[in-house]
Write a structure and sequence with these properties.
mainly alpha, single chain, 170 residues, globular
Length: 170
């Protein structure tokens, strides 16, 4: 396996562990919802690495899949950090992200396998239904990226999530 892929896989394994640790630490604790911003920042690193590396390898498809899937996780994480007065919905979002992050880790683990799987091998219809439902619960005013200065809110619509799902072939 290409040395760059090996390094990406090793770094991604550390990042997915960090992501799962964040989610497990905040699970069931609505007062920690802002930690979903940190989740978004960490998964954004994996997304950026995958998309950058995809431009430098012979077979970019697995890395593009990881990059697009990580982008979905990032959006849900950032949006989840803004949940107001709905602890049950927060718990659903954290649970969804735990499942999503485990699937992301499976995608990373598959990088060194001979038989390359597409995203449908990792993502169930039930998960897609949950993702769709969760994404529909967020209003248009909810930002989908980290906003350090709180001036220019970066908004996303359902269309951005739908576009990422389409890129993934889902």
């Amino acid at each position: 396996m290409d040395e760059l892929i090996v390094e990406f896989k090793q770094e991604s394994e550390k990042l997915t562990k960090e992501l799962i640790d964040i989610l497990e630490d905040i699970e069931g604790d609505f007062s920690q919802k802002e930690m979903l911003d940190q989740y978004g920042q960490v998964v954004d690193r994996m997304m950026g690495g995958a998309k950058s590396l995809a431009m430098a390898v012979d077979d970019p498809a697995p890395l593009e899949m990881i990059g697009s899937y990580a982008a979905l996780c990032k959006i849900v994480g950032y949006k989840g950090s803004q949940i107001k007065d709905n602890e049950n919905f927060y718990n659903i979002v954290v649970g969804l992200l735990l499942d999503a992050t485990e699937m992301l880790d499976e995608m990373v683990q598959s990088l060194d396998k001979e038989d390359k799987k597409d995203v449908k091998a990792f993502v169930s219809d039930a998960f897609l239904g949950r993702l769709q439902w969760v994404s529909e619960q967020f209003g248009e005013e909810v930002r989908s990226s980290l906003d350090l200065n709180k001036k220019n809110k970066s908004k996303t619509s359902q269309n951005e999530i739908d576009d990422l799902l389409s890129q993934l072939g889902l």
